[in-house]
Amino acid sequence: MRLIRAVGTWLDQRLQLGAPIAETMQHPIPRETASWTYVFGSAAMTVFALQLVTGILLALIYVPSAGEAWNSLQILNHKVALGWFIRALHGWGSNFMLAIVLIHMVQVFLFGAYKFPRELTWILGIFLLLMTLGMAFTGQVLRFDQDAYWGLGIGASISSRVPIVGPALVKLLLGGPIIAGATLSRFFAFHVFVIPGLLIGFVGLHLLLVLKLGINEWPMPGRLVRRSDYREKYHELTHTEGVPFVPNGIWKDAIFSGVMLLAIAACAIYFGPFGPSGQPDPRIIQTAPRPDFFFLWLYALLSLLPPALETPVLLIGPAIALAILLGLPFFSGEGEKSWRRRPIAVLTILLSAVTLGTFTNMADHAPWSPVMDASTAAAIPAKFVTGRTPLQVQGALVFQSKQCHNCHSIGDIGGKRGPALDAVAVRLTGDQLVRQVLQGGGNMPAYGKNLNPAETTALVGFLETLHPSAQTPAHDASLTAGIQP
Amino acid sequence: MSDISRRQVVLKIAMLFNGAVGVLLAIPIVRYILSPVSRGRKPGYEDWVSLGSIAGFPAGQTRLATFRNPVANASDGETAALPCWVRNIDGNRFQVFAINCAHLGCPVRWFPQSRLFMCPCHGGVYYEDGARASGPPERGLFEYSFKILDGNLQIQAGELPTPGFSAANKNKTLIQIGRQSPCA
């Protein structure tokens, strides 16, 4: 014990860090901020540290070469002792880090912590969010599988739409004319050197500002922020009724961080590592690329936007969103902090959460994607074919063999790209069905060249049987009117 | 005082000197970073590659062909092996389509029964001649220029076709906002 103290004293006589560290630890914080709602920032930092450690551990085995990366992931998963666990920790750590960063941001927003004098802390936080997203995307590329390969193609296609410099941007992004070895190398450099280096620097500045300006006090409805007297009031809060950060505040941070690490480890053990999916061989086209969880909303957006709006939204949308986020502390730098008196702030959060949640949920089902193997693998439920005439059964075969099933469901089986056909005969008459099948329209390709008259007759014969027994099929009222005197 | 001001002048000179050295070093660094863009320094971005004998592509059929990217490095692995769709229209006329959907580059699949290309990502669909049938793409499939040499089908390849730059037919760019629907 005495030896340790002697070494400590020896070191501190030279480093002289003991006093400033003690002062930092003892700095007074407002009493109410020693709260469970103030633990997310420190938890994000803890998970970031976990990512640094597990990332370095993975780099001991991983080979950042387009020809070898996928194999080295297999070695990590199956041959290196607990390699799968380190991969799982890194993958789940990434998801947790993004989630905690988002919760931290929501808390900061709802508690008005971005207001004077903490504008710069907020702005640095926005950059930290962008870098965290950047880490998530580049990390997804480093898991060099089919999803990564085609995901890069999507990134390149989006970049190419930038006016004038688009094609040059694509080559800069890919490191060459195609997705290949140079692409993975540069994403490796960004994921391992550039973004983490920036993250460490920005986290340091972010933390320094929290210490210099003090943690945001608990917002009280009616206690308004004014540039003229905020600092004095805050000084009063901290120095007359404040408590020291250590131990009053930090113990909750420590426990929550520990719980997060345990939760990540639990997910890693229970769910295991993410992928890799199939080999990044572009010749294997039997694949349906999907982005990772945190980019699913974007996948939905890209599918649902009208084509003409897509490019402007993709190119201008992020700039507007960024401008709003960065400008927030400047057009709302003073006034009410409490969420109880900021209904628009609360609604903004709710609306964003519902929107992103809905998009993410939709992307999980991807109703806009054809089910590529429905024509060969999805059955037409028996009740739709039993008791039908030979012509109608022949029509069901045409329906199946011409890939109609890839986009249309019957009995909830098959694609959701087009409308479900369980009751199509109620909506369209036989003539209208013929027209729709042959000419297409709406969002449907025209089949005029690919169906001979016999096939068309059979198909429409089958479609005309698709109506609930209690509902009569659609009929042409003008014809009926003509027959009756 | 004069001593201090002289030192300040020297400091300014030193900083100017450092700035000049920085600019000098920046020139090669920027050129290095931009090397993927400066195509002139890398001939052969696009080149003629063979897809094999035309006997492999029977008339009236559309088949998957693969080729090796003309500029491939050892570290590219399987990513240098690229697929494309070859359509033999009537024995004499061909169309060679890029595998990449004209929307966001996912691999389109050919369905010979319905004579459609379908994309698994966002639901783009194309007719057998590559024209857009439905879904989010704003144009038809990208096509490669091709020629037949000694009974071999060759295409001009080497660059990932993207909506901003469309393989061989460079005049068909995507950005045509507010364009009329082809069905209208």
The secondary structure category of chain A is mainly alpha
Question: How many strands, which pairing sense, and closed or not: the largest β-sheet of chain A?
Answer: 2 strands, antiparallel
CATH H-level superfamily title of the largest domain in chain A: Cytochrome Bc1 Complex, Chain C
| Adjacency order of strands in the biggest sheet of chain A | 1-2
E-strand count of chain B: 11
User: What is the helix tally of chain A?
Assistant: 21
In the sheet with the most strands of chain B, the strands line up as 2-3-4-9
Oligomer: heterodimer
At CATH level 3, the topology of the largest domain in chain B is: Rieske Iron-sulfur Protein
Q: N-to-C SSE series of chain A? A: HHEHHHHHHHHEHHHHHHHEEHHHH
Broad CATH class of the largest domain in chain A:
Mainly Alpha
Shape of chain B: elongated
CATH topology-level name of the largest domain in chain A: Cytochrome Bc1 Complex, Chain C
Unreliable residue runs of chain B: 167-184
Provide a descriptive summary of the structure in words:
The complex is a heterodimer of chains A (485) and B (184). Chain A has 485 residues and is mainly alpha-helical. In chain A, 64% of the residues lie in helices and 2% in strands. Chain A has helices at 2-15, 18-26, 40-59, 69-78, 83-110, 119-142, 146-160, 166-174, 181-213, 230-241, 245-271, 296-304, 307-331, 343-365, 374-377, 390-401, 404-407, 424-427, 430-439, 453-463, 477-483; strands at 28-29, 243-244, 409-410, 413-414. In chain A, the strands form two sheets. A two-stranded antiparallel ribbon of chain A has the order 1-2. In chain A, strands 3-4 form a two-stranded antiparallel sheet. The radius of gyration of chain A is 30 Å and the shape is elongated. The mean pLDDT of chain A is 92. Chain B is an alpha+beta fold. Chain B folds into two domains: 2-33; 43-157, Rieske Iron-sulfur Protein (3-layer Sandwich), CATH 2.102.10. Chain B has one helix and eleven strands. In chain B, strand 10 (146-149) and strand 11 (152-157) form a beta hairpin. Chain B is elongated. The chains are: A mainly alpha (485), B alpha+beta (184). At the A-B interface, helix 7, helix 8, helix 9, helix 12 and helix 13 of A face strand 3 of B.
